[in-house]
Amino acid sequence: MSASAAFALLGERAVVVNVSGGDERRVQRRLLEVAQRARAWGDIEEAVPGWNNLTLFVDRAQSTGDAVLARLRAAWDTSVDRGVAHVAPARTLEIPVEYGGESGPDLAEVAATCGLSEREVAALHAAGEYEVYFLGFQPGFAYLGGLDRRLHVPRRARPRSAVPAGSVAIGGSHTGVYPRSSPGGWQIVGRTALTLFDPSGRPPALLAPGDRVRFVAR
Amino acid sequence: MRALEVLHPGTYASVQDRGRIGYRAQGVAQAGALDGAALELANRLVENAPTAAALELTFGGARLRAHGTARLAFAGAACALQIDGRPAQWRRSYDVADGAIVEIAVPTDGVVSYLAVHGGIDVPVVLGSRSTDAVGGFGGYAGRPLRAGDVLSIGEQLAMRHATADTRASIEEGFEMARPVAIPICVGGEYARFPVATRRAFLETTWQVGVQRNRIGMRLVGPPLASLCEEMNSHAVFPGVVQLPPDGAPIVLLADAPPTGGYPKLGAVPTVVLGRLAQLRPGAALRFRAYDR
Prior knowledge:
Number of helices of chain B: 4
Order of helices and strands of chain A: EEHEEHEHHEEEEEEEE
Distance between the termini of chain A: 40 Å
Radius of gyration of chain A: 18 Å
Radius of gyration of chain B: 20 Å
Low-confidence stretches of chain B: 162-176
Oligomer: heterodimer
Largest interface: A-B, 43 and 39 residues
Structural class of chain B: mainly beta
Number of strands of chain A: 13
Strand order of the largest sheet of chain B: 12-19-16-17-14-13-20
Mean pLDDT of chain B: 92
Largest sheet of chain A: 7 strands, mixed
Distance between the termini of chain B: 50 Å
Shape of chain A: elongated
Low-confidence stretches of chain A: none
Mean pLDDT of chain A: 93
Number of strands of chain B: 20
Strand order of the largest sheet of chain A: 7-6-13-5-12-9-10
Largest sheet of chain B: 7 strands, mixed, barrel
Number of helices of chain A: 4
């Protein structure tokens, strides 16, 4: 199924492109390329990628939503679906993880859901080649695509009121790391000691869309 | 050091300015004053730049002490006010003496009030803003809401202009509210994909502001609306976006909403109306009025 893009305005501030169909990873790379181009337009406050979508915040002192929408459509149409193989890896970051035990209180449940042993879940998770699709939910929280299909598990029926900082977790087809203690519904399989977000950092978030990520079991 | 000491913060008080723009793609919320017009007015009354940071109080009920002289002004949800035990007026500026005690009562209407000080609240600029990001734990004062005992530095005074009767006169705010309040909404997002009955009920229902309201958003109470069955991919959201979660109760996102969300959307309330919306108390009635761009 080939990718089809739908363009729309949302309120007075935002212009959105939503892509359905197509290879999720390739669509995401194409959207990130469009986001990069849009940031140079000069009338965009922010370009915010989501999961197979992109939202541009219009600087209304400079432009209108309609003008940005037309340009966004042209940018998508002229962006190239290069295919996964042709894109040179951006950066690869390694995230050391302690799987299971107190660090990964949901590992046993994930293993039971997947019909695997805890060891197999940890090994599959650490073997994955992940790609940062976008950041959201909380500062520095990266949604990683590329999770092995065997590890796709639904969120917890009852979210935890406090997920510890550094928790490595699975939510549906994504995996990610909680930068800071917060409520959360993803299944926690491990923990890292890395700092994912430092407000005094340049940039503050450790991970950026397009980065490749590998988890290394400790 | 000139400063304001928090003796009692009230329900929820935080340092806010116009908010943080440019870091959504790193997961950072916009934050900033819930009622931008009221913040602007408070800053104007003390001759601050519109970018200055002020205190945002929720349901008033705060007490502060001045360390050194300070020029203060109050705007937003109007509260009875006393400076050193003497009644003072809302939407005016006052020069207060070292040690002065400022007591702000609970407002009779509205939710958020602003206390601006000439020179601004001098907390560090983090990622382009002095606003508190309580989720990320940075910005504002120590990255958190205020507590008793916090001492907030006051920024450098500009060459103090002698206040004239004019600048001291109260400035009228457009705070008059019809009941129910009509809130314009630019329908969009998944609006066209909702069942006709959902769309009609959304616009025809007189909604009540629920008790679940905070700086992240307000949940509306009314007959549950049928939402979409499909799951949405996470996408950017912003203050003013109205989401419809599976339980059928719409949520209006406010300043501290995270930059992405996954619920279907009915549209977005324009930024200029958000202040008025944020001043609605639990139980207040509102109706949405769809408008064409």
